[in-house]
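Figure 2 data, in text form.
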Amino acid sequence: MLKIRFLSAVWIGMTTLIMFTGCASKVTFKTLVREMADREHLTKYPENDYKLMQFSSYNRESVSPDEKGWYANEDMSHFIRVETNQGRREFVMFDTTGPGAVVRVWMTFYKAWTGTLRIYLDYDTVPVIQGSPHELLSGNSLAGPPFAVSVHKGVLIREEGRDLDHNFYIPLPFSKHCKITYECDSLERVRNNYYFPDVFYNICYRKYNKDTRVETFSMKALEDAKRELQQAREMLKGDHDKSPDVKEFSHELLPGGSFSLHFDTPNSAIDHILLHINAADTMQALRSTVISATFDGNETVWVPAGEFFGTGYRNLAHKTWLNRNTATGIMESYWLMPYRNNCTLTITNYGKETVMISGRAGLTHYSWQAGSMYFGASWHEYYGLNTRNDKGDFLDLNFIDIRGKGIYAGDQITVFNTSYQWWGEGDEKIFVDGEPFPSSFGTGSEDYYGYGFGRPEPFSHPFIAQPVGDGNEGNSSNGGLTVNMRHRSLDAIPFHNEINAYIELWHWDSTAVVNYALTTYWYVRPPFEINVKPDIEGVRRRVARCTGDIMKRE
């Protein structure tokens, strides 16, 4: 198992909390809806500081990296407790004191979807929200898409009993307390705290500092915010190509060659990048052509172009809040990248063939403030990786370790699976500021990326996307590629001193080999340190198109 590193007490002592002048604003349903679709909020450390945490149905045998159950599967139907409320048997999934806000709910089921979801706020015995998961989490009962949606809606269920995914992004602020329960008569105890049939859930929430003023959600607040919800819908479409200052380019990059755009307009931000790559071997060029960026002397971006724009190393159509690609190879990024004095955007060809690049980058005004941060993006690949370690155990793969203060804003995986067996049982494990147990511990790789049961069909959503899922039903002779991404907004993860982000490689085939590339997106204040370094050898390596392209480890 990879060693999980924690920040030393010395480093913690050296890092201090930046204090903002004035009083923090009140958190309301409207303010959260506005924030959800505002790219600029990611660039500034939260005015109302919070800790991002998660309740999930993960197997409670997972206690510590040093104990046997760390890689336990069966991450379903584990609840906090069972209550009897007005004669009803309710399974408690979420229970916390405020102030806080639920910011993401994901659920799916095996035969257990005919139940009632209830959300209680501020110790009220009457739920403020009540209904079936289909109506509330992926239907039009509250707000409809893109705030409540199944990304695979309309796709036939392949196996009897397996439900669709449910993604719910309506924020639910509370000042004192929140409890979420599920009533389902078919659930029966199997052993310990595990019930059957299966209920899978991930519920992300913000735990604000105790003095934060929060206005508790109500149905009236939902009704009063119709205008804000409609504005957020429009902004989440990702059509941000309206930069007032645009630089266009068209350039031939010989092997080893590079091209740079320099921006010296102070107090500005890159808010849009469009790139098209033309090469004899486009798949290889998407991996071997690298985007890098330096802001006020801080190099924070070094990522293969295809990974940076969310298309892996194939031209794949998808559209999220923060990037967009077409099947013809037009790639766009909408990450907001601020700086105070100057920045340089560079495109380098580390491949063996000439590459033609064309596109544009847009600049907009940005008011640099005390809490402003630099954008960062990092990439690395576990190449030819055995699905078990030398002891036969599963693996924790590291997204990134960051020392400093900032925001974890999203990630992407590009997996080439050489086996027909499912590769993605692994859970995300995200440690913040030296905590002994991760505040985000999930129930499966596809659950983390917003879908369920390893479905292979492509989908796009403002915050999540699967441009290709061929590797989810891998062919034993040719293998298959999967690209999954998650862009965070209200569920962005602040860290004061450090963050250590991992995802398990939990593959059903113990003899398989995979390529597993990880890209992370973050914002940070100097000084900072990351463990992921530019991997020139990795981007020069031949990309896998079939199983034979992967070098098996001896």
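Caption note: The chain is about 10% helix and 40% strand.
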